[in-house]
Protein 1
Amino acid sequence: MSDRPLLGMTVEEMEDAMRARGLATFRGRQLARWIYLRRAADFEEMTDLSKDLRARLSRDLTITDVRELGRWVGSGGAATKYLVGLGDGSAVESVLMRYDYGYSICLSTQVGCAFACPFCASGAEGLHRDLTAAEIIGQWYLAQRRLDERGERISRLVYMGSGEPLDNYENVLDSMRLFHSSGGPGIGYRRMTISTVGIVPGIRRLASEDIPITLAISLHAPNDYLRNRLVPANRTYPLAEVLAAAAEYARDSGRRLTFEYAMIKDVNDHPDLARELGILLADLPCHVNLIPFNAVEECPWEPSDRQAIDTFERLLSMAGIGVTVRRSLGSDIGGACGQLRRRFGED
């Protein structure tokens, strides 16, 4: 059996795999259609291939080595969390979210995380390894197969799960290119978002790629003193450097920036911090996404109350900053990235 699954290959790579087996290259295009557009999980589903060819391919190739280990649906059905098993026995999480505009999926990019933000479960045990492009795509594949049963489709990709996407740059970009490709799922770049803690070299490199994705920066504080506490990467890439790189990205891509701000009670939700944030971001084309904090077992902090969030939102609006409060999804299903994976490891 081939060491590399078909899911995660480009159409050209599938064509090469068929050519190496003495088969016509158009068979590769057939495989890509069945896997990326029809989400086939077994060669027997590929009915325009002969029975003998299906048997031959099943002996020599595998479609994917990711599998669904568990699935939890939140109250109201707006969020579904998947625990995704990988070929080496590791596991990651992805979250399917239903909005008025359709479905978005939050994808993990690493097993664990090296950046150890104290309010995030993903980094509590450090970084285990990067995900391959195939493993990133596999998260979408499993969720989309479930939606296929209802005739629905994932329309947006958000690289905001466990891990730091810009710390796994090549595999993340490879997955985006495949998602976007005409032979793949065909999801537009403008419907993709990368979230980062502010890895300045990665932001600048992304700016040079000429792909119009949305850049979201996990800000969480308007000054270095507080951000050093909440986002340890700030000690390496302080706010001034992060914002300069973000401005460069906005200029080169023509895209508005998103800044994520987790609202943590009595830590970063004081009105003075909202005013400071409004001044900090005044000259950037941006939008602030206020995120009610998802409590993590090891962290003593609590979510901000509604009044504090409303005040923070109002003060940013008064400063001329576009702002929304993210609807809280998945808090009843271990919504903070990393929680389910760690429970799985303890079982």
Note: Residues 182 and 280 are 40 Å apart (CA to CA).
Protein 2
Amino acid sequence: MKFVIQRVQNANVEVNEKIVGKIKKGFLVFIGISQKDTEAIADSMIKKLINLRIFRDEEDKMNLSLKDIQGELLLISQFTLYADCKKGNRPSFTKSAKFDVAENLYQYIIEECKKTGIHVETGIFGADMKVNLINDGPVTILLDSDEI
């Protein structure tokens, strides 16, 4: 599982020219789900995400978490995070989970994040989405379940 986390001042996602999710200060998270991912892997990724301290404290150090600043989450599914570009110029997506498996894990991640008390907004799984954001920093962090 991969999470691309962007610290944002605000972000929103549109489907068919309609905003379906928007947040103020917080994390925009692109979520890639592979064939080998499970709820247990998702749980460890969520724990790391929620406790990640990358917001500035009063001493201008990255020392505060999403909960500390009462930040929000915008969760977007993105199967292309498992693109394999080793051969040729057209990516292969065979490492990505099958549609129904990925959708179920994505929904699980959403529900588990909501249980933390953080405000959660989402895109629409499988839809063609337009994502708008103001990256704060810029700060972008890649969490990969193979590395945590």
Note: The chain has one domain: 2-144.
Protein 3
Amino acid sequence: MLKDNLVMLRNLHGFSQEDIAEKIGISRQAYSKWESGATVPDIEKCRLLADVYGTTIDNLIKTFSAEGIGTIPPAPKGKNIWGSVTISDRGQIVIPKGARDSFGLTGGQRLIILSDEEGIALVPAERFEASLKAVLEMTSSRSGNSGD
């Protein structure tokens, strides 16, 4: 619910109720009522809140939960939380339908697996290979021009 997300986001960002109220031009008491669920902000104030917290209005009003964790904060703008998956004994996972639909993933499609210290990412092979080709072409054109 909105009220839970407001509390979580404010605490994650290290703001006081007064800080947020000042940022969006309302009283601390008005903001406190939103966090308690006594009232809800209008759509314009929701937009301002989403901007302050770096998320979307849609993510601001939805509640997300993860298995074993419970309610989790809304995803930042441009990021998504698709849910959790379980890895089978053979290392297989099922990508949630919403993610497949959003990225146009279909059965038999090749994916490139990327990672950093935090986790992994799956990128459609065609997209990754096109980006890599563009970078290589740009690099080779620059090295060809360096002798001019």
Note: The chain has two domains: 2-72, 97-143.
